[in-house]
Structures are given as C-alpha cells and as structure tokens.
# Entry
Amino acid sequence: MSQSSFAVVGAGLAGLACARRIADAGHAVTVYDKGRSPGGRMATRRGELATWDHGAQYFTVRDPVFARLVALAGAAGQVEKWRPRWPGGEQERGDLWVGAPGISALPRWLAGGLQIVPGTRILSMVRAASGWVLADDRGGESGSFDFVAVAVPAAQAAALVAGHTVLADRAASIVMAPCWAVMVAFERRLETGLDADWSPDPVLPWIARNSSKPRRHGLDAWVLHADAGWSREHFETDAARVQAALLERLAGRLSVELPAVAAIEAHRWRYARVDKPIGEPYLLDRPGSLALCGDWCLDARVEAAFISGDRLGAELARG
Ligand SMILES: Cc1cc2nc3c(=O)[nH]c(=O)nc-3n(C[C@H](O)[C@H](O)[C@H](O)COP(=O)(O)OP(=O)(O)OC[C@H]3O[C@@H](n4cnc5c(N)ncnc54)[C@H](O)[C@@H]3O)c2cc1C
# Structure
C-alpha cells in the first residue's frame, strides 16, 4: 500500500477516531486543534475545589465498534459506568458511561500516540500543486497533505472549506444550538434525593451532580445546562447574570435553599447540539481530496461523533 499524508482538523472524538483509523493503516496523519488538549465538547474543567464535565455529561454505547473501544478504555481505567439517582433516567437505553476522572479521559486516551498539534486554529486551506497547505492563527503554514478531513462543528467546517468543495453548502445548512453551562461547587452538600434530572424546563432542562460520577474528588459539584432557546436568547448576557439565573432556577426546581457557593464558573457553547443532522456518517469529496465528519452528520451524541470519524477514517485508510 502506498503511504499518503493526511491532516485532520479538530481533535474532538470524531477527529481522533478518524485519525486513529488512518494511523493504524500506516499512513501519516497530523491532527490540529485550537484547544490546549484534545476532546472538544468532551471537556473537563478542573478547579481547585472541584471538577466539572461542562460539555458532554455521559455517553451510551450501541455500536459494536464503539463498544469495543469503550471496553478497551475500561480495561485501561479510562471509563466507568455512572449510576446517578435520576428519576426518568431509565429512558436512556443501556448503561451510562463517563470518562474517569473526567469525561475528557476517553478522547485523551484515544489521542495517545497520535501526532497532535494543540493550540492551533486552522484559518484557511490552499490547494497547491503539491497538495493541501493549512494556514493557522499563529502565522504558520503546514503541509503539504494529500488529503484533509475536517472534524469541527458544521458552521466552522463550512467556513473552512468554502470555495473548495460543494460539501460546504451542505455543512452550512446545518443548525447547531448553543448552550450555556454553569459549573458550581457548594460549601456543603446540596440535600436532594437526586444526582441528575432532565425536564422540559424552558430555562434549565438538565442538572447533574458531577461529584456523583466515579473517581471525582472535591466539593459537591453540579453542572447546569440551560435550554437551547434560552441560551440563544441570552447568548450575549454576561456570565454572572447567567450564573445567577440558573442558580435561582435550580433552587426553585428542587424547592431547596442552596448552600453557600464555594466556586462558580460559566461556559458558553456556541455549537452544542445539532438540530437536524445530515443523516449520513460523513461527507466525502474524493476528487477534491476533502472530507467532513462530526456528530452533526448523525446525531447530537458522543457515540455518533465516534461513528462518524471512525467510518470516515476506515474509508480513507482503504485508499
Ligand atoms: C452542553 C453539551 C452537553 C452534551 N451532552 C451530551 C451527553 O450527555 N451525551 C452525549 O452523548 N453527547 C452530549 N453532547 C454532545 C457531544 O459532546 C458531542 O456530540 C461530541 O463530543 C462531538 O464531537 P465532535 O468530535 O464531533 O466535535 P467537537 O467535540 O466539537 O470537536 C471539534 C474540535 O475541533 C476543534 N476546532 C474547531 N475549529 C477548529 C479550527 N478551525 N482549527 C482547529 N481546531 C478546531 C475544537 O477545538 C474541537 O476540539 C453534549 C454537548 C454539549 C455541548
């Protein structure tokens, strides 16, 4: 087999799964990410008093390839089952899995051995005679590459490949909803009989006691995810107001007086969840030497991101 050189833009689970397949087939692959470490929306914030998974909360496993990966990660001590007290949680099919000690453990483990360039946002791509050359926000240029796989949220993917492929229009048609996430740690335990709850609340649909996940240390820590419509409406609201609004809603929802806050942070996810996915595992333009993958191709779930990247990687590795 002749060796090709690949660039993958985005080191979320989709990009990592794609790169893994390509590397395992013996090709050269370099993964670029604007973040300091891999994982994307499988993110863990580490504070002095607590830790929080402020993006993906847990994942479920149905696909046999993903199941194999999760089994291997489990054997390596990177993932564990989470058994929250969650009224209604039985609606989720199967076990709830989390990374340990944080949800980011799974992508970090998957990234092991891959050539990853962190802290580097790819701004544009040029197709030179020798192949693709990528320009980044540090003033650098990388390449040339035979093939580029873009594994970032749909709108960002569309902007990057615009003018290079007709796939840009399909990516541009995808809407992804925002989400305000508030991370709070209380000085003493919040007395309530649940660790997680979802309800069709117009402000605060998801609450979870992050410290109920396995191998978490520190204070009683909670993650509050605001509703997509509310997040869109309050996207420019300052973080302190968002924190106050969601805490007030938490108290009202649980009918409790909240303990004193020991630490609080907020994070604004611009592209949290896909509304209507493409419905295909990935988008491939072979003559253009370009492909797109990510959760937005299939579903707003960790497993869908994995399947998208894994299937694209398998296809590209075949040559
Ligand atoms: C608030 C929230 C809650 C969620 N809850 C759950 C849940 O409970 N269960 C579940 O299964 N899923 C959940 N999800 C969805 C899940 O997190 C995603 O489906 C999955 O992590 C997406 O992976 P991805 O690789 O497709 O994209 P991402 O994880 O977004 O990865 C894309 C990567 O590309 C990088 N990037 C973007 N642009 C560039 C650029 N120009 N140059 C370089 N790098 C770039 C980003 O830094 C990022 O690391 C949630 C998501 C959010 C935000």
Q: What stands out?
A: The chain has a mean pLDDT of 96. Helices lie at 13-24, 64-75, 105-110, 154-161, 167-172, 228-233, 239-254, 302-317. Residues 239-254 form the longest helix (16 residues).
